[in-house]
Amino acid sequence: MKLIWKFNLVLTTMFVAGFVIAGWVSHNMLQANAREEVLEHARLMMEAALAARTYTNLQVKPLLEPQLNTTFLPQSIPSYAANEQFNEMRKTHKGFAYKEATLNPTNPSDRASDWEADLVQTFRQAPESRELIGERDTPMGRSMYLARPIQVKSGACLACHSTPDVAPKSMIALYGTANGFGWKMNEVVGAQVVSIPLPIPIARADATFRTFMLALAGIFAATMVMLNLMLHTIVIRRVTDLAAIADQMSLGNLDAGDFRSTSKDEIGTLTEALGRMKTSMVQALKMLEE
Question: Are 58 and 76 in contact (CB under 8 A)?
C-alpha cells in the first residue's frame, strides 16, 4: 500500500471516530439545552401565574368584595385570573397550557384529568416535593410539563371550601353545594400545571445539530485536500524523484541524475547524503577501472 493511502486511511479513521464522538456529545448537549430552555419558559409562566394570583388577591378582590354578597364574581378568584391570563396567551402560543388542576374543585373546568390527578397524588404522598417535571404525548406532539402543589395554607381558602354553610351564598347560587368543599388546612388539593410543547425547540436543536455536523464534515474534507496536497508536494513527489534516481543507479546507470536539494528539512538532508554516496560510488568505480 502506498504511503499516501496509508496516511489517508489513518486520517479517515481518526476523523470517523472524532465525528461520531462529536456528534454524540453535541446532539445530547443541544437536546438538553432545548429542554432546559423549555423548562425555563415553564418556570417563567408559573411565576407569571403566581403574580396574577397575588395581584388579584391583594388588589382586585378587595374592590369587588362589596358586590360578592349579592353576586359571585369569578374575577375576584386568583385562580380565575391566572387562567384567563393564559387563555389570552394561548391565542398566539398554541400548545401552551396552564391549569390549576384540583381533585374536588368548585368550578368543574378545574377538575384534574387522570394524569393530573396522578401528579396531585404524588404531591400528597411526598409532601416535601415542591416541583415535578416530566414529558407526555399530546395531540400536538411531545410536551413538557412543570407542576407545583396547591396546598391550603390560609383560612381564606376555607371560607369558601370548608362547608357549604359558611361559603358565600352567591357562590352557592352559582355552583351549588356538590363540589369544592371538605378542604382542610395544609391539605394538598391540587396542582398548578404548566405545559409547553417540545417539537419547535427540539426541531431547532436538530437543525443546529445538522448545521454543525455538515460544517464539521466540510472542515474535514478541506483538511484532507490540503494535507494531501502538502503531502504530495513536500514528501511524495520528492521521495518519488529520489527513488527513481536510486533505482537507475542500482541498475548501473550512474548518469540517471543528480541528488540535489535546496531544502534544509529531513528530505533535503537525505538528498545531500545520497548525493555524497553517489559521488563516493563514482570515485570508487573509477579507481577500480584504473
Answer: no
